Every structure is written in C-alpha cells, then in structure tokens.
Amino acid sequence: MICKDESFLGVKSKLMDALECAKSWYKCNSLAINEEKTEIIYFSLKRESNFINETETVKLLGIHIDSKLSWEQHVNELCKRLARITYLLRKLKSCVGLHVLLTTYYGVFNSQLLYGLRLWGGSHHAQRVFIWQKKAIRAMMGMKNHESCRGIFSSLNILTLPSMYILCNLIHVKNNSILFPSHSHLYNTRHKDNLVTPQVRLSKSINSHLYLQYVFFNKLPVSIRELPLRQFKKKIEKFLSLKEFYTMEEFVNSEISLLDFT
Fold first, then answer.
1. Mean per-residue pLDDT for 132-139?
2. Quick one: angle between helices 126-141 and 161-175, nearest 10?
3. How many Å apart are CA 206 and CA 85, to the nearest integer?
4. What angle do CA 182, 177, 203 make, to 5 degrees?
5. Structural domain boundaries of the chain?
6. What is the distance between the alpha carbons of residues 103 and 81, in angstroms, rounded to a whole number?
7. Regarding predicted confidence, which is higher, 54 or 67?
8. Which is nearest to 168 in space by CA: 125, 115, 238, 128?
C-alpha cells in the first residue's frame, strides 16, 4: 500500500486507514496479516517520522529500497555479489578461454547489473558498481589493476554500465511511446519533435530515470527515434558499444548525428 500527502501527519493518517481496510478485507476472506512480516517505510527528504515498526530500508523483489531513495544499501549488497563473481572470473581465466569467460560474464555478472538498473543506475552510488565492472573486465583480460579499460569494452562488445543505463531508458521510452508526448507543433523549430520534458526542481528528480529518460531520448536524431523497435535497439546498442561512455554526462554533452549510427 502506498500513501502520499504533503505532511507527515496526513500520510500517517491515510496509511493507518489503509491498513485497517486491508485487515478488514483479509478478515472477511478468512485471511490474516502477518504483523511480524509487515514493514513500514517513510519516504521523504526530511526526517520527522515516528511510525511504529518503521524501517530505514526494505527489500522488495531483490531490490533494497531506502527511505531517501539514495540506493546506497542496494549498491552495497550488489557490490558484495560482484566482488565474488569477479574473483570467480579471475580464477577461471587460468583454465578456460575468452569465449567461456564471456559466457560466464553475461550469465552471472551482467545479469546482476541489469536487475533494477533503471531504478538505481542514475544514483551517484552506481559509480562503485561501474568500478567493479571494470575490475571484472581486467580479470578476464589479465590486465593490471590500474590499466585503462578504454577500448577493451568495445573490443569485447560489452556495454559500460552508464551505457547500459542509457540503453534501458531509451528502450523503455521507445517501447512505451504512447506515454511520452512530443511537442509536435506546426512551427519548424529545432525542438519540435522532442518529447515534452517534465518540469522538476529537485536534484534527486533530475538524476532519476523519470527525468533522464526524456533527456536521453531527445539526444537521438529524429530518424533513429522513428525506427521500428528491433532496428532501434540494434542501432543504439552498436552506437553505445563504439562510444564507450564512462558517464551519462559524456552522452548528454556529446554531439550526436545520424552519421554515428551508420
């Protein structure tokens, strides 16, 4: 159950009412709420909550969600798993070829990066995950700890973490284009085909996928945006692989033309 209000007292009142309604519904259907497994989390940039049994972080479907939506706890847990997988890749390097290493990477490392990426990929904590991705690349290639991975990502046809995040958002927008209106006015201005970017004021909103997905999509040439989904994904993946973006800012600040996709 999700409740929202402009004040803490308001959201608390709504949540208590929702819980009572839920308990009543469960009782009528011969069910019961397990109070010990019921958690409450209060999302706010302020800290004024005093809910009973409130937690700072909850785990939902493998995603650790904290009260500030900083994604720090989720990244902490993810980095622990990636460290173990990187150790495995380093050990495998001595007894298998690159093809097997790449298969292992996509099966157990890349899959970890992709899970919930649109949620946590825009946070500043994601940089730590990118560091582990570079460590995994070095382990597979037998590189020294401080050797640059520039050029290696592209040669292995592996997307950097920032590029993976950009791709996830672009595919989401393309796949749900009906939800993203464009300006579509009659005047022949440079931005007439761009999506209507929502107005935001908080830095947390600006760095979230709910805002960045518009920024990423509007960077693409119009002819690329209009491609069928399958061709669109293929073109974007190839472009991102060749460019090896290390940050989202590199993508946003770069000059992108149709020639980059040929």
1. 97
2. 120
3. 32
4. 70
5. 8-55, 75-151, 159-262
6. 18
7. 67
8. 115
